[in-house]
Amino acid sequence: MAENIMTVNIVTPDGVVYDHHAKLVVISTIDGEIGVMAHHAPIIAPLVIDEVRVRRVDKPHHEDSIAVNGGFLEFSNDLVSIVANSAERARDIDLRRAEYAKQKAEDTIKVAEEKHNVDELARAQVSLRKAINRINVSSHRN
Asked: What parts of the sequence cross the membrane (predicted)?
């Protein structure tokens, strides 16, 4: 393998979502966005709900987009491992389902605010962030 190449794996409880060789990965952590390239210092970081962008070796002018809903990143020995509760590649996102989830979350937020139900409000806000993330990532289909 070439010396400036790393492997990117994204796994969920349902299995492997993504597994490719890459030159660059851009990831949003709780401390901000980071870019990781081969030979980066080892790192472990918690992730936020956001898009992971991967510049693959076999498609140097293209980025794969993956909607990741939190989790954590570990990088060492030129291996990026992302473990998340859920993740979807842009090409696999059902846009209608994501838009429905967004509308449902917005409706739930409205009701929770009226009833001052902070627990329901917090859950609905997370659901809304996940739906918006999926909608945004789906626009990067190949």
From this structure: none
What's the CA gap between 121 and 66, in Å, rounded? 26
Please give the Cα distance from 76 to 134 (Å, whole number). 28
pLDDT digits (tens, 9 = 90+) for 34-53: 999 999 999 999 999 999 99
CB of 57 closer than 8 Å to CB of 21: yes
Question: What are residue 78's phi and psi, to 5 degrees?
Answer: 60, 35
* C-alpha closest to that of 64 among 25, 7, 15: 25
pTM, two decimals, is: 0.89
Return the ∠ at Cα 87 (arms to 120 and 58), rounded to 5°. 160
Q: What is the 3-state secondary structure (H, E, C) of 75-122?
A: EECCEEEEECCCEEEHHHCCHHHHHHHHHHHHHHHHHHHHHCCHHHHH
Q: How far apart are CA 92 and CA 88, in angstroms?
A: 6
Mean pLDDT of 94-103: 96
What is the tens place of the pLDDT at every residue in 19-32?
999 999 999 999 99
Give, for 27, the enclosing helix (H) or strand (E): strand 15-29
